[in-house]
Every structure is written in structure tokens, then in C-alpha cells.
Specification:
α2 packs antiparallel against α4. The longest helix is centred in the middle third of the chain and has 18 residues, at 50-67. The chain has four helices and four strands. Helices cover 35% and strands 24% of the residues. It is of the alpha+beta class and 136 residues long. It has one domain: Alpha-Beta Plaits (2-Layer Sandwich), CATH 3.30.70.100.
Length: 136
């Protein structure tokens, strides 16, 4: 298994993600890797870590997720690995719940999400977003 962290999905990944037969509720498992220092594309002078920048995004996106009918059900720091092997562990895990893919897409197109996205990109070294549909 090859694991590759990324910050921005490819066009193909976006099309495949939103081409689903079931537009019901789903959860998004977020495996997050932070930069040591946040890097903003506008060269702003900042003294914040990647984690700090992502937490600015996290506070804003949590409010948006709730507004669009979803919730954050879990977030926490990764502290160890019991089974399997990876070159580097992720720094944090979060699980967000969405009522539908349509609601998720609408949230991502909201101007407020676009405003805070800069903090997400500044803070992340890489991320895996894994869609999960509940069985129970």
C-alpha cells in the first residue's frame, strides 16, 4: 500500500468523490500532518506553527459544518501505532459528519470557507480525507 499525503485534491479525485449513487449521510475521516511553521502564499509575516494555522481553520470550519447540518464527532492527537507500519504517523485525526455530499459541496463553495481555507493550506504538510458510510 502506497500512502501519499496531499493538501489539494486532483480534479479526478473531486469528480470521483462527488459521483456517488447514495447522497445520504457520511463521515469524513481526516488524517492530518502539520508543517513545523505555517506558510502563507501571500508572504505574510507570521509566527505561527502549522498546527496553530490549522486550528484557526478548524474553529471556522466546525461552525460551518454545523451550519450546513453536520457535526464534528471526534478530534485528537495521534500518540502511537499498535498495528501496521507507516513511515511517519499523522499528527492529528478528526471525524466530521455531513448530511449529504450536496451539503458538503455547498459548504466548500461558501465564501466563508474559502476565506479560512488559506489557514488550512498554510498549516498542512499533508492530509488524507477518507469518506466513510455508516453500517449501523
Amino acid at each position: 500500500m502506497n500512502v501519499e499525503n496531499a493538501v489539494i485534491p486532483s480534479g479526478t479525485q473531486i469528480r470521483e468523490f462527488f459521483t456517488v449513487e447514495n447522497d445520504g449521510p457520511f463521515a469524513m475521516l481526516n488524517l492530518l500532518r502539520f508543517k513545523d511553521r505555517a506558510t502563507y502564499g501571500d508572504e505574510r509575516d507570521n509566527d505561527c506553527t502549522g498546527r496553530d494555522a490549522y486550528m484557526i481553520y478548524g474553529a471556522g470550519v466546525a461552525a460551518l459544518i454545523q451550519e450546513f447540518g453536520g457535526s464534528i464527532s471526534f478530534s485528537g492527537d495521534v500518540t502511537g501505532l499498535l498495528l501496521g507500519t507507516v513511515d511517519e504517523l499523522w499528527d492529528m485525526v478528526a471525524i466530521a459528519n455531513y448530511p449529504s455530499h450536496a451539503a458538503f459541496m455547498e459548504m466548500m463553495q461558501d465564501p466563508r470557507w474559502l476565506e479560512i481555507e488559506v489557514d488550512r493550506e498554510a498549516g498542512l504538510a499533508g492530509q488524507l480525507n477518507i469518506r466513510v458510510e455508516r453500517h449501523f
